Amino acid sequence: MKQYLAIDIGGTYIKYSLMDPEYRVLHEGSTPTEKQPPDFLRQFMGIVDTYVDQTDGVAICMGGFIHPVTGENTDFSVGANFRAYHLKEEINKKYPIPVVLENDSNCAALGEMVRGAGRGYQDISMVTFGTGIGGAIIINRKLYRGSHFKSGEVGFTRVSLRDGDGKPVAEGAGATSLLVRKVSEALGREVDGSYIFSHLNHPYIDRVYREWLYKGAMVIGNFAVTVDPEVLLIGGGISENEIFIKDMKEAVYALYPHLEPYTAIEACEQGNMAGRIGALYLLLQSKEGGVQS
Q1: How far is the CA of 48 from the CAs of 37, 81, 87, 143, 199, in angstroms?
Q2: Contacts of residue 99, Cβ cutoff 8 Å, sequence gap at least 6
Q3: pTM above the 0.85 mark?
Q4: What pLDDT, in 10s, does the model give residues 173-230?
Q5: pLDDT tens digits along 33-75
Q6: Minimal CA–CA distance to 223: which of 152, 120, 156, 150?
């Protein structure tokens, strides 16, 4: 039976799984992500070295604008550790095995298409809320990357305008991290998302939450009316919160009522496994992967 190493490189943790072609996890682990590029490369290659004798290929997802052939990451907003090396090349310098490398939101959307909330849909969009806001587009069950591998990057969407010393300044929506930071600053102590959702009866917390929510709803609504997917999936850790999903759906349909009859809004189902499933799906669909599933 073939086995594959799937690696999800996040800003906080690197999570990895040894998986079979049916996406069953045979072994998994995680480790805090090294921030300095040389340390990061040693850490990453250490994971590959450990499993290379057990794997028929490596599937990687990470943040950034990823060139699907070279693996080059040109995203200015990610850390230097994510951009310093072409990880496909680093692996193939040592090991002649198939490797795919893709943007993490793209992989998460594919993972949901294969094994999650996107099953049965042809056209899928995804918005993820976490440290930042990410997105992905799937058309006819094929990933759409865009001319510069930047499609779906809805975190750069602008939803409001203010005056900045006589010049217009466009403002974007905030990710979950912004909501937590604003509430923490107002209360004078560190809180987390669980605290916020259990204290929405607090007038100030509710006001900050609603302002944040509706800006996010504008990102989702603008994305949906532009791409016209069958379903728009919401991902990130906060998507597991039923209150948030309910409130976000209501906010989107309140601002964009014409979307409700034809664009479903659903929470993702695969959690932090979605990226690894999607990355493996790309490897299996590649000529080098050896399996056409």
Answers
A1: 17, 17, 11, 26, 44
A2: 57, 58, 59, 60, 71, 87, 88, 91, 92, 283, 288
A3: yes
A4: 888 989 999 999 988 999 999 999 999 999 999 999 999 999 999 999 999 999 999 9
A5: 999 999 999 999 999 999 999 999 999 999 888 888 888 888 7
A6: 152
In sequence order, which residues have a C-beta less than 8 Å from that of residue 22 and are 6 or more positions away? none
Count of C-beta atoms within a 10 Å radius of residue 142: 13
Structure token digits, residue 30 = 């995680």
